[in-house]
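Hallway conversation turned thread

IA: we were arguing at lunch whether anyone had actually written out Cytoplasmic dynein heavy chain 1 end to end. Turns out nobody had. So, for the record, here is the sequence (1164 residues) and right after it the structure tokens. Reply here if something looks off.
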Amino acid sequence: MEPPYTPIAATNGNGVNGNGAIHHDEPSSFDSSAFRAYLLSLLPPVLGASPADLESIFDDEFDERVARFAGEGGGVIYVVKKKDEVEDDMPPTYSYVLTSHLTYTPSNSTTLALIKRGPTLDPISPLSTQLHILNLFGGDETPYESLHAVVSNGVKPWFDAFVGARGGGKDGDSKMGIPMTKKKFAELELSLLHLQQNVEIPETHLIIHPVIQKAVEQAQAAGTRPNISHIPPKLLNDSTFLNTLHAHVNTWIKSIQAVTKLNRDVASGTASQEINFWLSLERALEGIENQLRSEEVNMVMDCLRNAKRFHATVSFIADTGLKDATDNVHKYNQLMKDFPLNELLSAPDLDKIQEALVLIFGHINRKLKLSPYPIRRALPLVEAISRDFNDQLLRILSSHRLLYTPYETFERLLAQTTAIFRTWDELIKEFTNVAREVTRKRSERFIPIKVLSAHAKLQERTRYLREWRKQHEQLAVMTGPTKGLGGVGMDVGGMDMEEEVKEAYEVMKRIDVLDVSVDGTEIWVTAENAYNERVARVENQIISRLRDRLGTARNANEMFRVFSKFNALFVRPKIRGAIQEYQTQLIDSVKEDIKRLHDKFKTQYRYSEAYHMSQMRDLPPIAGAIIWARQIERQLLTYMKRVEDVLGKGWELYAEGQKLQSESSAFRKKLDTRPVYDAWLHDINRRDMGVNGRLFEIVRLRGGGFQLAVNFDPQIITLFKEVRNLLWLNFQVPHAITNMAKDAKRVYPHAVSLMETVRTYGQTLDLVESNKGIEWLVAEYRNEAQRMVTRGMNIRWDHFVSQYDAARYVSSADGRDNRHIQFVREFASVVSVLQDKTNNVIDLYKDILRAVEDLATCSYTSEAFTDLLSRVQAAIDRLNLEGYANLDQWVAELDKKIEGILLQRLAHVIQIWCAEFDRTDDGEMRRDALASNKRRGDKRHNEKFLEGNMTLKPIVHEIRIQNQVIFLDPPIEYARQTWIKQLHDWLGVVCRLRRIQSSRYEIGLQMQGAAASETTYTSLLTHFPDNTLERPFTLVEAKVQQLKDYVGKWLQFQSLWDLEAEYVFNRLGDSLAHWQQLLTEIKKARSTFDTTETQKAFGVCVIDYEQVQSRVNAKYDAWQRDILSRFGVKLGNAMKEMHASILKARNDLEHHSIEGLVGGARRF
């Protein structure tokens, strides 16, 4: 069973591979013969060795090495091919070694690394599946080229292919660290490339005489400083020894000069070679300086000086040129050190390239002013950087296969590329300026500062490619199935335009579009010609269809609609040429549109619909006018752009176009909003505007009187709105006006709040004024509002402006800085309470007034009055509950009003009662009148409920006789009591009503004043101004007296039973005149009872005498008979006596004589 295959073998420190492998419970021993056979079959073709040459590998230690390699410990084993040393004219021979440890010598020709893929080698599985093979070349040259080839052509592409196959996108890659790994690969590749490109600086080793070397070692061993005393004295004067030392010094000078005079052609090679050359040269010079400062060199110089050989010592440093070279290299390396070239060479994408360019030129421009690096070398260096930049850009763009990518990706990549080229141009311009400035400062010989960019051709190709792909994409879209041309072509010319465009594009996909070499350009031109041939057929089809549509367009708008739909294709010269004939027609249309814009402008902003819309949107006048003008200008530009889109650039060069352009330019000058802004600015500066002065002001009204107002200029509000909008419109508003607007904006919320509060306050006072009755109730809230106004009169706007900023930084819990702002809130709150209380009390007051007015017209019933007074009392209770002030006094006034109404009702009721009581109709007529009233259904409230219910039912009194006693049943006092009770009942409807009270929610007042206060309206009876209340009682007494008089006549008949006849007769005596008078009176008195009627009516009272009438009549008859009989007897007796008297007188007369008559007559 084979272990899983992984594309890259990563080994740990012990050489053990980290990938999974097959683990056996008991590892079996590996057969070295299998490995031997594997090597014999592998090495001859790979290393070019014969089997005989390989025998040196299979020595006695071969089995041990193989076993160690196959086991847990060994991770790799090497087969090294070494070149044997032979004479120059002999053919080369090679020897082979098998080892687990590598050592590098110049004789190494090739090294083959056999790397295990698992921890151990499995004897069962084939070795080809368990081993990696890596060929490492050696030889005379350095191994950098070999390693660079392995990384750049083997490891890195394999890793990129693996990551690309997995997908996952940028985010997924970033989380796994893949971009960092790619960057490390790029840096490794770059480092290996630098190593092979570097100019080798020869190493300088100064030759030291053995005697000098020995003396220095002895001195160092003794711990003393070496000097010439450590050299044997005879040698110090030995000319041979001194000549040798002199020769050595000359050799040193030559070898040092070989380094100090070293130089390279900056125009050849890469920028990294130039940078590394100077850095390596500095290291080499530092090494030489270190050697020259050594004790051995000092001792040699001391020996030569001691021997008076100053020729060698004095000019030694000057001859080498070391000091000048070192200084020069140090200064140059100010530029070369930390040079961010690697950021460019290892950039994995376009963004990193752009960042690297900025870093590189930032470094060059900065350091070039400090370092004396020659400009004549800097220019080729920048050109070398351009070559590196070109290579990196090609590498990244080629990896994307541009024509195979979707258009969005292609456009993004090419846009990035264009931006990078633009960045390069800007950076080169800056570098050129720096180079010229440095040249001038150094007073160097003038050279033209010109950089020949290596990427110029690539830049031109990418620009052309981007434009070409854009045109192709527009053509592909317009011929696609979603546009109106996709299905038309088949009908018109029998050609599928969409497929034709695709096939034309396929031609271009087969070539390398970024190859800017001569051959590559020829291939590009050939492919483009083939593409254009196919596309030309499609363009002909499109032109045909487009002309058809333009021909059927009914008006310019439809034509513009067609143009806007196919506008993307008008960049193609062939299609543009086909629509030139519509130029005049379109210009006429645009002229008409511009004329309408002129008319719109001439109507002026203030009379336009936009003005009203601006007011609704809270746009101030100046800003609104500027926006309106800019909208017209934008519309004008749209029309101009529409013409340009259709007719192409340069349309204004035609005669008609030129006229249209001049008209639009003149109109645009009129649309310039700057004069409007300047006029506004001048007006604002002329005015003395500012947020200052007192908070309130008193305004005299035209009609007389004064009014409270907020001392805040509305123009200030308009000002800050203007400033805000003008700043949005990118106008430069002066600082002073901006500050004024800021102040206005700060206090604006408070000013608006105060204005609204004062307006509400005024309206509320008008309400109170128009409802006089509620003044007392809202007096407390009104006084509170007036106290707030009094407070506000001392506050100035300046306080708000100065304290606003402080309020932003100090917590509101402190409260000190918020004093004035707090006043605004409190004032608004107090006025709001006043308004609410006023509106509430007005509603309640209207309800109370309606109820009080209804008291004058409602039914005269206790229920009606009680219901109305209950409504009044409920409203008063609500006023009490809501805490209105002066409620006691207000209720007292209301009570007086109610008393007045109730007093009128009482007087009216008494008047009606008296009228009803004083009627003299009999009961039948009274009942008829009642029925008649009910039948009429009189609509009048008073008559219906007062007169109808006021009908007094007559009281019937019966004169009765019992036990020979005549009496009245019921007695007259009952009538009086009944009438007065009825009167009291009618008066009690009002008098018993409960008075309205203001203190039903006041516990203490109820407890203390309950006894003192009157709870009903009984006291109204004492308030009549005249004798209204006395009149009913007078009528009652008069009626009672009338009854008494009539009843007294009946009671007189009691004497018929009480008198003794003898008493009467004795009383009358014998006087006939008395008897005759009595009989006459008896006859007269008989009329009282001797009638056909049985009762006597007195209006509200009826006397029924039916029962006593017959008995009195009978008794009367008896008495009359007795008296008549007695009178007859008396009269008979009297007649007899008279007769007797007359008879006697006659007789006497008859007995007298005539003579005696005269005298007798006298005496008679």
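OS: looked through it. The mean pLDDT is 76.
IA: good, adding that to the notes. The chain has 45 helices and ten strands.
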